[in-house]
From TrEMBL:
Pfam families, per database record: Ras (PF00071)
GO function terms (MF aspect): G protein activity; GTP binding; metal ion binding
Catalytic function, reaction form: GTP + H2O = GDP + phosphate + H(+)
Protein's name according to its UniProt entry: Ras-related protein Rab-4
Membrane topology: Lipid-anchor
Assigned GO CC terms: early endosome membrane; plasma membrane
Family: Belongs to the small GTPase superfamily. Rab family.
Matching InterPro entries: P-loop_NTPase, Rab4, Rab_GTPases_membrane_traffic, Small_GTP-bd, Small_GTPase
Highest taxon, organism lineage: Eukaryota
Amino acid composition bias (Polar residues), ranges on this chain: 199-210
Region spans: Disordered: 181-210
Keyword Transport tagged: yes
Length: 210
């Protein structure tokens, strides 16, 4: 049976290698911690249907490799993304320092309007923290990002990060700031009845049952 949903959003999970991006995705989709996580080679994919503000939204999530040697491969997946989780490791100053580069890539290659939430992962390792909550919060504010600290191990704030991002995209659609009909918006209508009649450029026509 095919899934029914109101919207489909394309999401990215980006950030340096070893920050726990694949574990975040796995925790969100499977509701459990991924024990044997190796570095992602290229790109991994997952999807989940969630309820956001009374609408059913399918999230298509691309988990990109953080290692520099895969950068050219992963960059091609940025195109047409509506939302992104930008992940760093709170116990690694190095991953935090790299955030500006990742952010530039996302806004240049995906879309200037991409909705991004900054995730300080590994909140369960608070004793080994190298980046304070306040410092990251300030970075998020300066760069107009939402911000949460997450733990892929315990699941804390993992679902909330994805939902918060999706909620913001939905609000922007409702306010007219984002147009799902625009090419490369990273948003598609799932339910044909939601599609606004826009003249000849509407893509797929539903077969008529009359």
């Amino acid at each position: 049976m095919s899934e029914t949903y109101d919207f489909l959003f394309k999401f990215l999970v980006i950030g340096s290698a070893g920050t726990g991006k694949s574990c975040l995705l796995h925790q969100f989709i499977e509701n459990k911690f991924k024990q044997d996580s190796n570095h992602t080679i290229g790109v991994e994919f997952g999807s989940k249907v969630v309820n956001v503000g009374g609408k059913t939204v399918k999230l298509q999530i691309w988990d990109t490799a953080g290692q520099e040697r895969f950068r050219s491969v992963t960059r091609s997946y940025y195109r047409g993304a509506a939302g992104a989780l930008l992940v760093y490791d709170i116990t690694s100053r190095e991953t935090y320092n790299a955030l500006t580069n990742w952010l530039t890539d996302a806004r240049t290659l995906a879309s200037p309007n991409i909705v991004i939430i900054l995730c300080g992962n590994k909140k369960d390792l608070d004793a080994d923290r190298e980046v304070t909550f306040l410092e990251a919060s300030r970075f998020a504010q300066e760069n107009e990002l939402m911000f949460l600290e997450t733990s892929a191990l315990t699941g804390e704030n993992v679902e909330e990060a994805f939902l918060k991002c999706a909620r913001t995209i939905l609000n922007k659609i409702e306010s007219g700031e984002l147009d799902p009909e625009r090419m490369g918006s990273g948003i598609q209508y799932g339910d044909a009845s939601l599609r606004q009649p826009r003249g000849p450029q509407t893509q797929t026509k539903q077969p008529c049952s009359c």
